[in-house]
């Protein structure tokens, strides 16, 4: 099965304790589609400006990502500029220039409208709604968002949530959005908005799955090599969706595995700037780390009479 | 096997979003010994002032905790006063009065000196060293500490670490102590000081075990009921040590189980103020939640060719 990703295509300027990189390839759609492409076919819906380097489009194509719904518009590509301090858990935005995103009107091809696995990456919820309106009976829709949309387009965001299966959101944003410090409570409130399940991404602390009567706590990865956290959540989502589409199994058991696979992709992505680690990543490395996650988290129950 | 706990016995004044309680039973030694007592015999070494309510000593005895090494000195009992804000992850200290702790000189009985399982709960590292000097060939020594000692008695603390098997420390303190935001790096540095293993307690995010070639990420508990986080780390340690002593098995597999058991006890303790939840806690509840942790964290590896 193929994964359809709708999201941003960006030129990022990023500063971390490991260096500063200017106008590097980024964007929620790019990270997610690239991570998904390790598992099978992926397509990306997005927009770039006339300044967007052709080599980046070539890279996406080299990953067998369908780029026919990437629109090129006059003007500049979406740009994000930010930095991470010492602890690297929190991105600090210096500048966001929506540029061509401001007039973006996503159009799916006839084939893309029939997609079974759809990921609405972090993007204006009104654009996410426009994509939802074009879909015909997908098997699974997941979405992500960020504080910017929680603050500025709360109602549209709620509408999106009511129409998707799985909400991916980071811990700080879940707390902020649902106005509670308690993550299980925040998750329950998001589910009440109409989603079937919520996955809370906690960065270095792993990820949590909440659904009616279901809870799963995915282990954290002991990340010694962390150069640039940009795109961690998007590559998590891409790995998650890619694995689900590849296996075409939406059981809770398989969703748990997909969360681990998402964690694996994210753990690689943060090892270098932009998509650099993804460019070097080998399928065998993915399998090895997937097995490591099992070792990191397993324990046996031994009943002891107390 | 019995667990010997050395730590504080306190009268706490605690404010959380769920209320304020004045001069309630607390202290690292009390929480740890109480949690350990669910698994078998425990003893507590500590000091109280002449103002310490007899009923608290009776409570400890009712838990079959050996109190003969609790010294009663003229003066006031150690008092801690603090509050938790909205997110309850961080304790804010209003006032610490060491009182009788200032002249405390821990003395172990002949039997206690032969203890096999020893927990040096959060306490002045110089007092922890005095206890270490009295021990004869224990099977396992674990310790805990806090930012106050990291700042004020760094060298004594390093000496304690070099003489114990397992260091328990919370995430913020591990980062601060080892001057790195990276938890795996902080853990490696603590192990270099001479401990065999490090357990990093992450509150709502679970716990991590690091040792030479070993990593374990214990799941977080979806804690909806959280009234007072005071003593969470100490009850974690007590559950951990109590389970190890009960099973008398120091293999890595069993240490993983003991970490889960520590997480179980901590998750109950925070459901109410002081030791209130511990007073009501039934062994069957412990077993049930222990099994829940397994369900929260399990996933199966399914090899998928990518």
Automatic annotation (TrEMBL), chains A, B:
Keywords: Kinase, Transferase
Alphabetical list of Gene3D superfamilies matching this protein: 3.40.1190.20
InterPro entries documented for this protein: Carboh/pur_kinase_PfkB_CS, PfkB_dom, Ribokinase-like
Any GO CC annotation of this UniProt entry: cytosol
Location of the Carbohydrate kinase PfkB domain: 25-273
Pfam families: PfkB
Sample GO molecular function, one term: kinase activity
SUPFAM superfamilies associated with the record: Ribokinase-like (SSF53613)
Top-level division of the source organism's lineage: Bacteria
Descriptive protein name: Sugar kinase
Organism: candidate division WOR-1 bacterium RIFOXYC2_FULL_41_25
